[in-house]
Each structure stands twice: as structure tokens, then as C-alpha cells.
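Long-time lurker. I teach an intro course on protein structure, and each term I like to show students one example going from raw sequence to a predicted 3D structure in C-alpha cell notation. This year I'd like something fresh instead of my usual example. Would anyone be willing to generate the C-alpha cells for the chain below so I can use it in lecture? Attribution to the forum is fine with me.
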Amino acid sequence: MIATLFLGRFFCGWACHILSLQDGCAWLMKKIGVKPQAIRSRFFIWVPLGAVFYLFVWPQIAMYFGGIEVAKLHVAKADSDGWSSFVTDDLWRNLPSGEIALSTFFIVGFLIIYLLGSRSFCFYGCPYGALFSIADRVSPGRIILTGDCVQCGVCTSNCGSDILVHKEIKKYEMVTNDRCLKCLDCVGGCPEQALSFGFTKPPLFKKISKLEIYKERYNFTLWEDISMAIIFILSVLIFRALYDLIPFLMSIGLSVVTAYLSIIFYRTLTNQSSKIRRTILKISHRITPIGYTFITFCICYFTLIVHSAFIQFHSFRGQKIYESVITDRSSTRNPQKLEKALIHFELADDFGLITPLRIKKQIASIHLFRGEDRKAIPFLKELVEEIPEDIESIGRLSVIYMKQKNFYDALPFLQKLVELQPQNPKSHYNLGMANMSIGNYELAVIHLKRAIKINPSYEKAKTGLSMISNNRKDISE
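-- Reply from a regular --
Happy to contribute to a lecture. Here you go:
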């Protein structure tokens, strides 16, 4: 941010991996004959600022009114407080799965570029880009005129940010647009070598109006932009953390795409003619074969979104009710609330494409609270299969089987607990007692002695050893 105040958006142009992805995708698309075409929207330009508010401002407001004390700024040791990653052996722990990462790259890269134009995520989705664009307005570092410009327009055609470079140079002798990423494509492409990067008076301190150059360049009517805003907000609510998988920036990209496709879909159904980029969907009231394919795709896609909204609603409502029971001590034994939460969770589980681990764990917890141990078992087993180190679920399964006196089924889970918690005397005690119950006294003695060694005052383990000693005497007699 500090560098942007002096040099402009150099970070975006030279250090951002998302921009590299977008430029790489645009280059590949041009190689196969698909030229990205930029669009202009009154609404999309506000999306990054909305993302900034959600990421950086809203959490502070929520903490303030929620009575949560803001954490003090401090230097954290590696892996302390659950977030520091200066030193770690698990580099992927705070990153999404490979499938989600690839999906994000496809949406932010190829799809958004094809629909909205080159570098469109930078201007219509990236919250950091919004912050940098504000800082760029006071930056003295700009593309400036240092030679004779013949207004050939090569600089504009080379610009991947959809800036009318030649017009801005003619009027202001510099590029004033905050979309400029200082990539220097215009400088390198100028046949007259009339452009260069330099320092001058920032646009904020000059009388500059973008409307003089970019007036009437919108691709959507006012009502279409308003409709896209509504669709976008609803889509973010649906996609954000759907199935506990979709990250925020991916949900932004999906929502932008959904809003845009909705307008094109409506145009195809109602207007005389319609196209998506350079592809004709409808002409003279006649829908083309590609248009029918597009309509079919949109119907399937919007149906999936409605389904996702159904899942998201029940996941959200179930979570809210469940949290109200857990956090409110006076209602921790409120079976009616838990029943409502269970209904929502089961609907999300039955109709969802996948069931998040969080919901599986909460369904299991509700069943255990209701005394329905057998119903909890399949969910707990799924949790252990997906997360073999889930101590809580392993412990719950072992307790259920021990209560049922099903010691043979309990043994693998008790053994796993000992492997995960070798210094926990209770884990050794439980494994020892299970082995004693099936007559495996040698192993029982080993684990009970281990429990006593870890905790010399563990009376239960001592009692267990006495029981084994008495049983052995009875057997020998």
C-alpha cells in the first residue's frame, strides 16, 4: 500500500499472482482465436469496495456491537494463537483444497475474462485492487507523455485494462485512470516511443473528469445494472461458504458471473436480438442453435443455484439454532430447539450434494444428547474416515461401544486414542479395561501400568490392576 502511494499500482502489474493468471489465460484465449472484450457496468465497479467493507470494516463493527474485545497488535510466535505461519511444516493448512483452488483459477481466469474482459476480476471483484485504486489517485508515479504522440492508438490496443490511453495522453499528457496497473505494455508498444513511466502531479490534485473520455460506454441499462446488483448480493449469500468449501473471493467471482449470465439470459428470452460476447444467441426474434444451448445451460445452472440456496438456508438455520443451544446455558437441555436444528441439518444432509464435516459432527452431537447412540454411530464413523486424527469423534465412538459392552468394536478406537494421546492416562486406562473385559489380561496390565506411571495417583487404574489380579487367582484356583 505504501509503495502504491508513490509508484501507483505497480504491485498489481508486477507481483500479483491473480493478474499473472488472468494475463496468462487471456494470452491462451487469443492463441485459440478468442479475444477478450471488456465491458462497462455501473454496478460491477462497486463490487470490490463492497468486498473491502465485508472483509475489513464489517468484522470491526460486528465485534464492537457484539461486545468482543479487539485483539491487540502483537508479534506472535510460530503456530501460536492458531494463525501464525512464519514457521510451519504444514504449508497447506490455511489454503483451500486442490479442487477448490483449480476451480477458483478457472472462474477468476478463463470464465470471467471470457465474459467480462481482460483483467476484469481486478476491477470487478478484487478487494485489494479497490484499496490500491484509491491509493493510486494520490500517487505521482504515472505513465506520462515524454515525446510526440501521433494518436495512432497502439497504446490503447495494447492496454489490457481497457483504458483509452491515447485519449488520456492527448487531454492530460498522462494516464489518469486508476485501472492502470503500470504494466508498461503501452510504453513498450508505442511506435513513437512517446510514453514512459515518470512522476508528475497526481490526478487527485487536478481537475479531471473521466466522463469527458468514457461517457456513454456502459453495456447495460440502468435497470439491468440494478437487477445485477440484486442478483449479485443474493448469489454471494448462496455461494459464500457453501458446503463449507467455497471461499469468499471464489464466491465473488461466481456471483459476478451469475449476475451477468442472468441479464444475458433475460435478453435472449425477451429482446429482438442477443449475444454473449461475439457469439450470436438470438437475431431477428429467432434463437440460434447456440442460443438454445445457452438457454438450456442457464436453466440447469439456475436450478443448481436454487438447490444451493435450499441447502444454504437449512445449514444456516440449523447452525444458528444449534449455537443458541450451546451458548445459552439455560437452554442446554432444550429438546425442542435441538429437534428444530436436527430437522434443518438432516434436510441439508439428505438433499445436499455433499455433507460438510461440521454438519455431520453436529448431527452426531444432537443424537448423542438425545440418547440415540446408534443413530450417531454412522456419522461419527464418517468423521473418523475423513479425519483419522479426530480425537473427539474417536473418543465418542469408543464410549458408545463401551457403554454397549461391545468391547471388540471399541478396541480399534481405544487403540487409536492411545496412539494419538500416548501421555493421556485415561486413554491407557480405557484400553486396559476393554482388554480386561475380553480376557486379554497381559495387554490390560501393560496399559493400566502405563496409566499409573503417567499419573501415580490414578486410583481407577490401580483398582483395575487389583481386579485383574483377583481374576487371575480365581482362574488359577
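Some talking points for your students: The beta strands are 141-145, 195-199, 274-276, 279-283, 286-287. The mean pLDDT is 87.
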